[in-house]
Amino acid sequence: MSRAVASLCISLLLTCCITGCWDKAELMEYGYVQAVAIDQNEQGNILLTTLFYNPSGHGESTGMTPQPKMAIPIHTEAGSVYEAVQDIPLHFGRRAKWDHMRIILIGEGAARSRPIGELLDFFSRNHEQRATVLLLVTKGDAKTYIEIHPYIEYTIGQQLRKIEESVSRYSAKTTKMPLYELAIQLAGETSVAMIPHAYLSNKGQDIVVAGIALLHNQRLTRNTVSPDLTPSLMMLLNRYDQGVVEIPCTASPQSKTLTKESFEVISAATRIKLEVHGEDVTAKVRTKLKGSMNELHCSSIQTVEEQQRMRTRISEQVSKDMQQMIVFLQERKLDAIGIGNKLYRKHPALWKQWRKDWDERFAKMTFDTQVEVDITNLGLNTGKSFGQQKETNE
Amino acid sequence: MRNTRHNRPDSSASHSSDNTHTAQNDHCSVIFKQLELNRSELEQQFADCADLVMACWSYGPGMAYHAMSVYFDTMVERQHRDEMKQTLQDLVPHQLGAASTVLPEQLFRFLGNHGVTSKHAILLHSLEEAVQHITQGSLVIFFDGWQHAISYQASDMMKRQTSEPITEPVVQGPHDSTIEDLQTNIGMIRNLLRSPRLKLVTMTVGAESRRLLAYAYLEGAVNPEVLSKFQACIQDVEQEEIMEISYLEEWISESVYSPFPQARYTERPDTVVASLLDGKIIALANGSPTVLICPGNFFEFLTSSEDYYQRTLFSLLIRILRIGAFFIALMLPSTYVALSTFHSELIPTVLLLAILDTREGIPFPAFIEALMMEIFFELLREAGIRLPRPIGSAVSIVGALVIGQAAIQAKIASPVMVIVVALTGIASFALPQYSMAIALRILRFPLMVLGATLGGLGIMIGFLLALLHLCTLRSLGQPYFAPTAPLDIRQLRDIAIMIPRKLLMRSPRNRHLHRTGRGTQ
Q1: Do A32 and A176 belong together in one domain?
Q2: Can you tell me the distance from the alpha carbon of B57 to that of B88, in angstroms, rounded to the nearest whole number?
Q3: Do B363 and B253 fall within a single domain?
């Protein structure tokens, strides 16, 4: 017995020697960072706005007293990100805890004048920081975004994260870009990367996350993919989950506005196959869309022929959008589709020769797009537009 | 007591010398022929026993012969007191002639040869025997001029009616429970297991209390090794004053300081019989309503007899739930402390924000808060058990304040902590065996300390130490953590999951297996 007790005591004492993080701390010793905004001021210093969660921020407030603040933004300024982080306790009193940060906002100005790696190095190096934190490039200064009040969520950080997640999932008007994925893109051969884009609307009261900001050689370019074009880019990248394809009706002389019918994409898959013939590269883009009709205005789908006609219309529209997107990228010589990466994988020897002038070659290459559409569902109004009379001539 | 024997003048008994007599111990101190000597001897032994009655009476021609009934007034049934007289009056006329004419010689010859046919009467040969019988609540009759005495079982101790088992109630299944009376309990068990292979050994323990102890096993089912080990363990128990059968656990367990119970207790005869069929040994003591079942096995403490009475699917789910309850009762407070002081990154963000809201303004560190609330809860539980029932409701009212809304409003504890403590309490109540719940109560606190000092690593260390201990623990030579360590996949079917009884019967409780001398576990 005494031997057992002695060995137990010794082994428990030995646990004191094992490596540990020694990060024992009560929850109240930290301030929990919800979002961070990185800007650059006129002097070229980093301006860091850190949004802390305010735990006592939502007591039961009656209508008489104003709603206390749910989150506290702290502004610090320094030559580097880490220095700015170190200055936070000067203003706040608590140490920043980074592991529950929801989003990093990068101001347009900072992203343009400094390499993105320089801005994000601290966040990828810090062990507390998760690599799954989402990124956002803001039009104008990022700090103005962080001070806007959220609608339902606890903090604006959470709201922006939710927007980015749900937009990329349900409407494909932007993409979800966690830190680790940006790192993968930056490590790629083409040195083109993308980050979701946010802008203000409604007199600066409302944040919209849509479109994609493109980066080249770690710096933000002036080219932002507009929300309308983004779904096509997502399809080309095979990052498209769900979304809507709008098909314009053939304009009839009576109506002044152009009505559009909509096709809801439930699943999409794209494969790009490269064919190299000497100096020419052709990319064969094969996309398969599956979905249902959500709005019918100027056509009915009641027969096999009608269905076939609709499928062709959708396929043509999607193809057209894709080509438009490709032209947009080729004009700007930005290989955001990652053709260069594919080439590097499949034809490494060829890539060695082409790497230097790849941007030029990309601008000249041809894309062959084919879209296969499968309409699985017409909704409850069988194949006809709402309120349309039954056809009598048959 | 022994010295009194030296001045015994009786010649018929003292043909052996006084010296040899004392050397041979008291067992053969013979009853004197003279009634008066017996009387004075007994009076000496039972000095200051106010409830002892020594009634002298006469019989025979001219009431010339004397006899004496000795009994404890408090133990003997009132109607039995004159039984002997009645018997003599009834019996003697038919066999020997009228009571007024019967001579002692005839009577003695008759009693000596035939014994006493009616009732449970025993012929006594020594005074020691007589004293024992008197203390057991028998009525002992001495006759003048006879070297023997007659003892009647006439004890009338108050005993509880069998009632619903208080500690192990079930919805479905028998509602019988054992009581403080050994005879009744053994009768109940025999009634459920009517086999001559059910062997019962009784022994009297304690020099003063002379308590009757019994152990039983099913021959063929019991592992002979276990049985001999058990017998060796309780060999020296005869000297001890056993108040409750649970005393015995200390004799049979190899690791007295282990937090885990190594013998199981029940007050359900059906559970007793099931464990006998499983090859267990049971032990009972007079005056104790619980039955001890050994050797103990860890997983038995997570089962309830009702598991076998409910539908299989339900029992299976309940068992899984219980395993969950086991881990909650053991580790929830320590996990909470570790998560909130070391690994806040592991808590989902929204939950963390909710916890932050409640923790803000609490003056104590999470560990102190947890420790405090756990101790409050233990106090409450202890107070609830020990208090007389009429005051009991006061405890629950005050308790609800201490571990509840009032504590939260006073900013002593956070709501999350209250939920953690309450959930831990409920989980430990969900374990069917009280003794296992106690083990978890003991282990919870060191785990909390480890969780607060080393975080998740500490909990892991604590858990591993407990696991190592469980794996090495043995009860009567049988591995305590079987069938998981050593692993026996076939036996696992009655542990974490429960397979249909039809299949189950073919295995652990299978007679065929037992007959061929395989596992008893």
Answers
A1: yes
A2: 12
A3: no
HSE toward the beta carbon, residue B149, CA cutoff 13 A? 32
Cα-Cα end-to-end distance for chain A = 98
pLDDT in tens, A286-296: 999 999 988 88
Partner B contacted by A19 (CB < 8 A): no
Of B350, B359, B455, the CB nearest to A27: B359
pLDDT digits (tens, 9 = 90+) for A231-241: 999 999 999 99
- Quote the ipTM score: 0.81
Contact flag B357-A56 (C-beta cutoff 8 Å): yes
Q: What separation in angstroms does the CA of A20 have from each of B342, B416, B458, B466?
A: 10, 27, 10, 22
Domain extent at residue B485:
309-501
For residue A292, the domain's CATH number is: 3.30.300.210
How would DSSP label each residue in B154-189?
Answer: -B----PPP---SSS--SSS------S-HHHHHHHH
Cβ-nearest to A26 among B345, B366, B458: B366
**Sequence-ordered list of residues with C-beta below 8 angstroms from that of A339, at least 6 positions apart, any chain:** A190, A272, A274, A281, A283, A362, A365
3-class secondary structure, B71? strand
To the nearest whole Å, the CA of A56 is away from the closest chain B CA by 6
**Confidence (pTM):** 0.81
Checking DSSP bridges between strand A219-225 and strand A243-248, what pairing results, if any? unpaired
Nearest to B358 by CA among B418, B421, B414, B422: B414
The reply to whether B288 and B318 lie within a common domain is: no
